[in-house]
TrEMBL record:
Coiled coil: none annotated. The keyword Nucleotide-binding does not apply. Pfam families: TetR_C_33 (PF13305). This is TetR/AcrR family transcriptional regulator. Keywords: DNA-binding, Transcription, Transcription regulation.
Length: 200
């Protein structure tokens, strides 16, 4: 077991998040615990609680890393000179790819819940808002007269729909024939929703 002064708090933080990330590359959070994680990096559970505040906050920090990775992927894979609808389709396809490639990280992002008495920290909410801003920006180009509230509603509707398709696809519960591709379902969703939304 490492001594308390072997690493700084920030180094312990990075060690824990890196080890948790390695675990989530191969299996679900259910196979990990605070005790196992602490043991894996050579510290006590109490040390991790001292660094993060709680196991929930540790998981929230891992989710922040996931949101950062997803945001970076969205920027990297955005096609050059794309139309707003192409941007939305790229967002949805990138989201699907990320969910497939990082299944357990992606699941943790939505399965983890803070205790009822704890609010989502500003630093996490800012990351969430940044992702929605990508969708809202594309929608604003399609319908410049829409209000901010209408853009927020449409962005969240699109995301929730894409997320639902991704979740069912990963769990193999779409109950669709093998010739119906998930990507085609997402493209159909974006095309028809956006077309209808623009006419409102």
């Amino acid at each position: 077991m490492a001594r308390r002064n072997d690493h700084t708090h920030e180094q312990i933080r990075q060690l824990a998040l890196a080890r948790l990330g390695e675990h989530l590359s191969n299996g679900p959070l259910a196979n990990m615990s605070l005790r196992k994680l602490a043991q894996a990096i050579g510290y006590s559970p109490a040390t991790l609680i001292n660094v993060f505040g709680s196991y929930d906050q540790l998981l929230l920090s891992a989710n922040a890393d996931t949101l950062d990775q997803l945001a970076a992927r969205l920027i990297e894979q955005q096609p050059q000179q794309a139309t707003p609808q192409q941007q939305l389709l790229s967002f949805a396809e990138t989201y699907l790819q990320f969910a497939r490639q990082h299944r357990y990280r992606w699941q943790l992002l939505f399965e983890h819940r803070l205790p009822d008495e704890e609010a989502v920290p500003d630093w996490q909410q800012q990351r969430i808002n940044r992702l929605f801003a990508v969708i809202e920006s594309a929608l604003a180009q399609l319908a410049p007269t829409q209000t901010a509230q209408q853009l927020q509603l449409a962005a969240r509707t699109i995301w929730a729909s894409v997320h639902g398709i991704c979740a069912l696809a990963l769990d193999d519960k779409l109950f669709a024939s093998s010739d119906i591709r998930v990507e085609n379902m997402i493209a159909s969703l974006i095309r028809h929703y956006v077309s209808d939304w623009q006419q409102q």
